[in-house]
């Protein structure tokens, strides 16, 4: 290696060279990933405004205490709405501004849970009374479902809402410690109002199960807790310090009276006399959940995109190990064992971003349908979104950690930026429906559809259940994967659909002796078959989206998504006989062809990796990562960050007199020696 070699200059050279190697029109792909030129333009303008505003400064946040992070979160929420007024941002602009925030903000509970549930489930009277205040943030809301003693099992919630016909009021009450509402975002210190799940008790002690009620929590004059309520923060949310900027809270109610109109009674209600009014559809209350969960798909797409961008940029400029043809240590991205880990992240981000956008359109349609009482799409969308929520949270968490590990020790530094994203995203596997519980729901619906196929009135197979056509038609025979399969998206999609249908069939045939992991595998197989079919549609639409060179590259990205999905499904594919050893395979290992195809695709995409990750369009402010800086000068960025560490303000730490000195002196005394 040349002694005149300067690694910091080399960082920039490596990044410039990698950028120059990209053959695609990055600007075109960027517009596509951002939902079109107008949305990309809006995002750019909004990010410029935010990144130049001191409230959104991220330079010191790695050193903030919980209290400081919370105060910053509230300041960010306030400033965002101030800026909305100042710049006359539309609702769409605000959605962009909120989506580029990398903090779990207390205001999110208002926007993502409280407001949509109120809009979807409140009566016209209740909605019109609070709609303007809710929209303008004149009141701030939260959603109180989970209790200290129960989360997933809604039917066992203990908080009661007892109807009192004499005064036409409900009385909210927390009868036990375990009925304390727990975990609700913004409940601790922020929210003035809440939507609460409580057991509806009708005259004659009739327990009608959980229903939604609207309740004021704090005074609009002083922000003090109103009488009868006990409110507070549940404490630092987790040991990794995720969610520190949000006040997840607890609440107890002591015989709190609310007017009858405060029941969210668009669908289920209570007559003045106290009789129950049945909802038109058993799953009507799921519409709010569908909305929150659908947002998680796009959100996971952007998170994985960040992880991909940071890790690919760092691996491009980090040199380590063997000496390459240029006489320098090799860029770590050139090692297959590195790039096969991080290039697939690009593929998942590309797919989830498009999938999320399509899902948002479907959920908007559902909301319109429900507002006129049309519930035809409700159950289908509920199961689809539940499965997707599980898939994107599971893979998103894995991908963030994969990216972090691919960067070695520096990946663990707070300045790498991925640790915070990981800590904030971890509970996505738990909130908005614990993943294992959602898997059970996805599988139950699939089994019901499957069983109906052998009845005189079979369910129609569409959307999430279309893969079942394969076993409905007895003449169809499962394919056998060959070397060709890995080059053809349609063959990969077919394998994933067969895997889902055969697994559902197996589960239906083994209900008396189930294997313990089958629910998780079936749910994943169903969702991956659904996503694979959508990827097929995305591939088919590529010609009209890009110029030929980008079509070829993005097609490879989508194919890589399909192949890595197959790779993670190998246990099922082998167990179900969808991949079998053939005499042609030299090693008799039938999975080798797939693995080699994944490796080949990753290698082919390598020269495009910087261009593809630039296409997400992240600014340095958005990434907030010393290892993911656009110009590649990672060592200088890391050095500058370390200089801000508060411990470095003084040469001799205050711990010296208190602890280090006595320790040293004791040791020196025991050793009886002087140096
Ligand atoms: C950061 C964060 C934010 C949150 N925000 C809110 C909010 O705003 N509002 C709100 O109401 N809640 C909120 N929650 C709570 C969240 O919705 C619940 O934690 C979640 O629903 C799971 O419930 P639980 O914690 O009681 O888990 P449990 O239901 O106790 O589950 C514990 C374990 O048991 C398993 N299990 C439970 N039941 C079964 C079963 N029948 N079969 C098999 N396995 C089972 C689960 O799979 C899980 O592994 C939040 C949580 C977090 C972490």
List keywords for this structure.
binds flavin-adenine dinucleotide; fatty acid metabolism; 675 residues; Acyl-coenzyme A oxidase; Butyryl-CoA Dehydrogenase, subunit A, domain 2; lipid metabolism; Butyryl-CoA Dehydrogenase, subunit A, domain 3; three-stranded antiparallel sheet; 2 domains; 10% strand; alpha+beta; oxidoreductase; flavoprotein; six-stranded mixed sheet
Please describe what this structure looks like.
It is a single chain. The strands form four sheets. Strands 1, 2, 3, 5, 6 and 9 form a six-stranded mixed β-sheet that branches. A three-stranded antiparallel β-sheet has the order 4-8-7, with no helix packed on it. The protein is an alpha+beta fold. It contains 23 helices and 13 strands. The chain binds flavin-adenine dinucleotide (FAD). Flavin-adenine dinucleotide binds near residues 146, 431 and 436. The site of flavin-adenine dinucleotide has 22 residues, from helix 6, strand 1, strand 4 and helix 13. Its main location: other. It is found in: Peroxisome. Belongs to the acyl-CoA oxidase family.
